[in-house]
Amino acid sequence: MNPRPSIDELFSLGGSLARELPGFEPRPGQLEMARAVEAGFESGSHVLVEAGTGVGKSFAYLVPALRSGKRVVISTSTITLQQQLFRKDIPMVARALGLEPRVVLLKGRANYLCREKWERARGDLALVERPEISKLRRWANETITGDRSDVPFRLDSLLWERFDADGDDCIGEACAHFDDCFYYRRRRDAEAADIIVVNHAIFFIDAIAGGLLPAYDYAILDEAHTCEDIAMNVLTASLSRRSIDRTFRRLRRYFTLPTSLTAQVDERYRELGETLAGTGNELLRLDERPEIAGDLDRLRDALYHLENWIADNGASALTRPPRGDLEREMRISGAVKSLAAQAEVVDRLLAVDDDSIRWAQSSVHGSELHCTPFDAAPILRDLLFARTPCLLTSATLALGGDFSYVRARLGIDRAEELVADSPFDYREQARLFVAPPDLEPDDPDFVVRAYALLEEALAYSRGRAFVLCTSFRRANEFGERLRASGLHPVEVQRPRSGLDRDGLLRWFTETPGAVLVGTRTFWEGIDMPGERLSCVVIDRIPFAQPDHPVLEARVQALRERGEDAFARLQIPAATMLLKQGFGRLIRSRSDRGAVLVLDGRLQGKGYGKRMIAALPPATRIAHLDELQEFFQT
Ligand code: SF4
User: Fold this and answer.
1) Fewer beta carbons below 10 Å: N end or C end of the chain?
2) What EC number(s) are associated with this protein in UniProt (predicted)?
């Protein structure tokens, strides 16, 4: 029997990967990363790898993961990467290694069709008359996955909600379809799988609350720069008009609810919204506004009344006869639970403790209230990193080779660390221009002066640009000026209208010389290799909103401990995001392009210089006209 090849042999020119993967070429950063990951699997330790763009990080972790013989969960933040791993990368690496791992892609339950709801809705005339229903029926009859992403036409979200496998509507083992339920079948497949691919939301819900994933030996968190935000979302309890409407919508599918009690909840929430709006603040901390506690108390009482009513009268209020006692009980307990969950959020908003920040956000679209943990690190340390060895990797994880920021934010005390350099020649492939130090984003003439730079740069790049803004207001200001100039085809991301993210990306791909002006959603997770994207413009250093209650509370706590909050928190977070924005530009060895930062603080302030040092080593240019020659060669 041949001895097991080493990682070095596998990644060599004559190795199995080169034989199986078309165009494979050894990359030092990839090999280094694969060695580090394999060592992590063998020792059961955490590994942090910042893998520069082009390192080929997925192969660098898949090879050690697949040949480890361990059950591995791979979590990513984007569906694009999950699908690429599941459909392409894992099968390729498995073939190269001569292995046949059982692999499952597990999505959140709302992605799957609920056979029970679908069957029940068949007789609903209001639904039957909708034109999409006959198309959906054809799909539902044929699908073997029940996965919404396989529906071959655009589907309204509220319509899909009527048939999705969401937990609030599920009657579990009381369901006649439990054995062939799309969602539970996938869960059972995961129980027997070697590799389970999930998104970060599922991963962190399971890590924090349990119950979604089977026991596993090692976790790989790709796109790990998003982990803190996603874990925070999972840990945050929220209440909004939308969440209450959604609860009522779901309850009304099964129960005839007493209007007097639902109206009471609506009225209490309306009063709460009015009190919040009356403060005149878009963002506020609830502990600074004690008058809100009274509104919250009354809202909680209204939720309790409805919850108690369903507990007492649910059986006679069911809109359709249940198939048996078990279904009746499950429906009533599910309804009670979903109202209790809303009341529990109110409890958390009313509680007084030092571990959470209770805050509210109001806008013309309504108010939302949130209870966010002060710090995710102690929770993640206890529930995840003290129990399960993990690899965390991303193109943006370290600051100048130092991982202490990400370790502190996530609660990882010890880890093997590696920066695997990108194989790209940034000095040759990329140019970086920073606005003069006296151009600062809060200057009254900022837009006029910054736009002049933007227009000049786009003339050299012939459009083909992303303009990444930190606010919709700024995106709109630049977008309007660009449109008025008529020099390039322009699309601007709008908060609640126009094309969505995918639509804008499609437009950009199909439109020669296009300029896309967008906000946060375009800063990361977009892979646009080739000439179509030759210029990335960044409007300002992406510091988090300074008056955001969560940031304010964290800054205050650090100051009370005598620490420099700006250096500890705000600069590292902004640098990470700046690196992400920069990272949209060079996606392959043949890409060339320029990054333009319109915020002069990047060269005028000491922290700005440290931020530049953390970016990929593009050639700095002092004058935009240097781009003329660059884009001509
Ligand atoms: S088990 Fe739950 S999710 Fe699955 S079909 Fe039945 S009710 Fe729907």
Assistant:
1) N
2) 5.6.2.3
Cα–Cα nearest to 516, from 529, 533, 541? 533
Task: Output the DSSP codes for 422-469.
Answer: -SS-HHHHEEEEE--TT--TTSTTHHHHHHHHHHHHHHHHTS-EEEE-
Containing 490, the helix (H) or strand (E) segment is: strand 490-492
| Distance from the alpha carbon of residue 165 to the mean position of ligand 1, in angstroms | 6
Distance CA 190, CA 507 (A): 37
Nearest CA among 185, 190, 197 for reference residue 87: 197
Note the pLDDT tens digit of each residue in 476-535. 999 999 999 999 999 999 887 777 888 899 999 999 999 999 998 888 877 888 889 999
Task: Please give the CATH architecture assigned to the domain spanning 7-101+194-217+388-420.
Answer: 3-Layer(aba) Sandwich (3.40)
Q: Which amino acid is at 313?
A: N
CATH class, domain 426-632, is alpha beta
C-beta of residue 593 within 8 angstroms of C-beta of residue 461: yes
Q: Looking at ligand 1, which residue's alpha carbon is closest to its atom 8? A: 114
Identity (one letter) of the amino acid at 165? A
- 203 alpha carbon – ligand 1 mean position (Å): 22
Alpha helices in 359-445 (DSSP H): 377-380, 404-410, 426-429
Distance 118 CA to ligand 1 centre (A): 10
Ordered strands of the 47-51 beta sheet: 103-105, 195-199, 72-76, 218-221, 390-394, 47-51, 416-420
Q: pLDDT at position 2, please? A: 61
Q: 339 CA distance to ligand 1 centroid (A)?
A: 20
Best of 175, 179, 185, 327 for a ligand 1 pocket test (most atoms within 8 Å of beta carbon):
175
**Residue spans in the chain of domains classed CATH 3.40.50.300:** 7-101+194-217+388-420, 426-632
- In three-state secondary structure terms, 620 is strand
Contact 440, 598 (CB under 8 A): no
Q: Which of 112, 117, 253, 326 to mutate to test the pocket of ligand 1 (most atoms within 8 A of CB)?
A: 117
Task: Return contacts of 304-307, CB within 8 angstroms, 24+ apart.
Answer: 304/343, 305/261, 305/264, 306/257, 306/258, 306/261, 306/262, 306/264, 306/265, 306/339, 307/336, 307/339, 307/340, 307/343
The residue count of the chain comes to 633
Alpha helices in 170-258 (DSSP H): 182-191, 200-209, 227-235, 241-252
User: What does the block give as tokens for 173?
Assistant: 């083992």
* ipTM greater than cut 0.95: yes
